[in-house]
Model the fold of this input.
Amino acid sequence: MNFTEQIKEGIHWLGVNDRHSPYFERMWPLPEGIVYNSYLIVDEDSVLIDTVAEGSDSDYLARIDSILQGRALKYLVINHMEPDHTGTIPAVLERYPDLKIIGNKQTKRILDSYYPGIGSFEEIKDGQEISIGKRTMRFLLTPWVHWPETMMTYLAEDELIFTGDAFGAYGARNGAIFDDEFDYTSTEDEMRRYYSNIIGKYSKFVQRALTKLKDLPINCICSTHGPVWRSHPEWVLDRYNKWSLQEGEPGATIIVASMYGSTVNIGEYIARQLARAGVREIRFHDVTTRPLSYIISDVWKYSGLVLGSVAYNGEMFPLMGQVCQELEHLGVANKHLAIFGSGSWNGGGVRNLLKFAESTKLTPVSDPVEMIGRPNAEVLAQCDVLAHALAEKILS
Ligand code: FEO
Done:
């Protein structure tokens, strides 16, 4: 990219769109790409906040040069060590060998493991401040949002905070860099998918970070991904609070694994009964066709969770097993759960979905529905009971 953007007097955006990588972390689909945001503060001392992925922008250093106009770059603050934000550190240090790297004890440990002996390092503690002229940087340690070293950098004079991955989103910037240059609410789905895939496991640490931010005046949030939130920072803070508490919206995510149609047919029937009962938001996912990333995002969105699996060698269907394993790994909580399944002799789908319920401490809203072969009137009547119990919980 060959342009930069001033966020406030002396604070510059240096984002890089990645429209080539098919997956984030080689796992999560990026149909609309992703942006890596880096920032440059020009004061009496100049400070680079995070860098960008290695090889993502051949103009990155030239963009820094164009802003600095020959001034020295005194500091590089590393809010987060994941390589999508640190891959360009060697190149930056080659260009500005006198700069000092700022991070915390954990940053140093990880930095040394990636780049042994690189640069000079100044370790900061939680709440420590460094003056750079008209401004003072305050460092807030926010471990595990997303890695153990993650921290944020606050500028009280500007009421602006650089937050690392927190408040980020999938999606490259399509021209609009600031939240007031497009319909910012359209970011919600890709922001929640990013949150649930990447940060959701660490939700209790997100709550701790939000508590730290609670009394700070913040009028601008600069994340390493997504837009710059200069007009609606409270909207983003609200969503992070809700998602980290796993406060689902009224609605249901139905996830099915079927081989010869019985299980999916029951899923369709339950979906219909939920709609009849007044549940307005229903998402339906077949594990064989829907990427895990989108399934997780919907699970995070809605308060109702319906799992249906055919038996497979006495277990649940393997792809359903993968979904359950990932949900358990991410710490899914606060869901109204309903379970159903089918088999051809002695089952296995329902039996193992119940083990998932037990290990995640999600209590099913009613007895599971399990059938052998194809659904009959008795099975459908059991589905009515299940759907009614679930709808009541979702709408209460
Ligand atoms: Fe954007 Fe945790 O890296």
